[in-house]
Amino acid sequence: MNYDKLTKLRQEIDELNLEILELLSKRANIALDIGKIKQIHGYPRYDPIREQEILQHVVKANNGPFTDEVVSCLFKEIFKATKLLQETYTKAGLKVARKTKDNNTLIEVKDVVIGGDKKAFIFGPCSIESKKQLEQTAELLSKKGLNFIRGGAYKPRTSPYEFQGLGLEALQLMHEISEKYNLISVVEVMDKEQLKESLAYIDIIQIGSRNMQNFSLLKACGKVNKPVLLKRGFQATIEEFKLSAEYIMSEGNEQIILCERGIRTFENATRNTLDISAVPILKQETHLPVIVDVSHAAGRKDILGYLAKAALASSSDGIMAEVHPNPRVALSDSNQQMDFTEFEAFLKHINYESFS
């Protein structure tokens, strides 16, 4: 008799569990709808005042057998799970998210595709210093069958007294020489004025590490019809990196190339620490091409080939590195720029011909 009663009570518990689950699911779906409305209007997702009001309301309605503390604890866990669910759905709903697009984003510039079967190799000096310097580099890259050339026109330096770049003159040189050698140019801009000034001269806009969260610049780049190479901030998480790309894409520009360039850690053997794990994570969680800047990651030339091989093995879509005719007289980052002989050895080390 007692066993039959036990069985019946257990069945009631099972039925109640399903009812609770159904109610929890219904509550979660309503919370997701609330989250969507908040996102549209720009309201904060978390509202501690509202949460406190709910707790007070349910505790007041509590008639036992659970104590008020237990009821409060149970609902706090529900709040926590709901907040996590909203965050998960928000991430999945990002325009850059893999779940929003079945295929990889392919970026085509001058009949060259970034993010496809072939790797993109982007080389050039840290700063554009003279026509001779840039043309010597362009001639070498062209002879090697490479398609891209990088170079700084505006240089965000740590000290205001260091070389800041040639500005408009550098843009004009880059345009002239990249056209002459049929190369695709990549140049960094630091603000909206520089962006406007550079559009007529360059093929790919670069946003550097220091400006990864320059939101007004990100939005402005989202309104132009040019590819944007976005570098990860040296203290940014992968999630923050993705959200910076989202700023660009939310304004309409889907031509975004993500660039891992190392993050700041306690290690001082290298300029930064190359986060190689970021590459497959970004490839899994976004549909955007991902390249790796090995020069800024290392800050030294002797290990560039090894970092590049690791980057290529980690499924990256390309490599960026700095090359200069005579790094010893370079006006910026002389320690990490390869000379032409070192560059030849670098290409051989990574077996470049197998990718061309």
In total, how many domains does the architecture comprise? 2
Strand order of the largest sheet: 3-4-5-6-7-8-9-10
**Rg for CA atoms:** 27 Å
Largest beta sheet, briefly? 8 strands, parallel, barrel
Helical coverage, percent range? 40-55%
The helix-strand sequence is: HHHEEEHEHEHEHEHEHEHHEH
Task: Spell out the blueprint of helices and strands.
Elements: H1 2-41, H2 48-60, H3 68-92, E1 107-109, E2 112-114, E3 120-124, H4 131-143, E4 148-150, H5 168-180, E5 184-189, H6 192-198, E6 204-207, H7 215-221, E7 228-231, H8 238-250, E8 256-260, H9 278-285, E9 290-293, H10 294-298, H11 304-313, E10 318-322, H12 340-349
Parallel strand pairs: 3-4, 3-10, 4-5, 5-6, 6-7, 7-8, 8-9, 9-10
Antiparallel strand pairs: 1-2
Helix pairs in contact: 1-3, 2-3, 4-5, 7-8
What is the structure about, briefly put?
The chain has 356 residues and is an alpha/beta fold. Helix content is 46%, strand content 12%.
Tell me what you see in this structure.
- It is a single chain.
- The protein has helices at 2-41, 48-60, 68-92, 131-143, 168-180, 192-198, 215-221, 238-250, 278-285, 294-298, 304-313, 340-349; strands at 107-109, 112-114, 120-124, 148-150, 184-189, 204-207, 228-231, 256-260, 290-293, 318-322.
- The protein is of the alpha/beta class.
- The chain folds into 2 domains: 2-92, Up-down Bundle (Chorismate Mutase Domain, subunit A), CATH 1.20.59; 99-354, TIM Barrel.
- The protein has an 8-stranded parallel beta barrel with strand order 3-4-5-6-7-8-9-10, surrounded by 6 helices.
- The radius of gyration is 27 Å and the shape is elongated.
- It starts with a helix and ends in a 7-residue tail after the last helix.
